[in-house]
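Troubleshooting: if your tokenizer reports a length mismatch, compare your output against this known-good record of 187 residues.
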Amino acid sequence: MSLPQEKLMTLDEFYRYRENKEGIIEYIDGITYMAPSPSTKHQRISMRLSSKLYEFLKGKECEVFSAPFDIKLKSDRVAGDKIVIPDLSVICDKKGLGDSGYEGVPTVIIEILSPSNQSHDLVFKLNLYMQYGVKEYWIINPMLNTVQVYVLDENYQYEQAVVKSDVGKVSSHILKGFSVDLEELLT
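Known-good structure output:
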């Protein structure tokens, strides 16, 4: 992620600003963040996981969305305007779906790290998603070939459910029955 701008923007200013820019731009409480273009490995992982989730969720109430897809985080527990663009989002409460994105809290969010955005996804977004109540957060690190899975507990705190390296399977705790072979995903 690039460094945030110094001047705070309103949400309306952000939407106008983004119309004239290319790339993925997120908005957190008046500050904009630009994501780097994804690497080839990042894209492969995203497509493989998106395809697996799509097949798994077919005919179920949840649906997977891949970037770029705006998520305007909204919760009674947290104030402020936040528009994030996760690599993958699983949405089960579809009443917040609109033509240009989703307003609410996805059930599962998956981020695939890039060398320049590691701390943003590992620390900042982990805390942000925890505050908003994202039930499960996966962080995939293609540089280390690892997957970390965090599951929200009843106190709105993340517990690290699993850390896996490039062998074996990793399973969702929220999407019962969904698992992925890491060697297939990460190679």
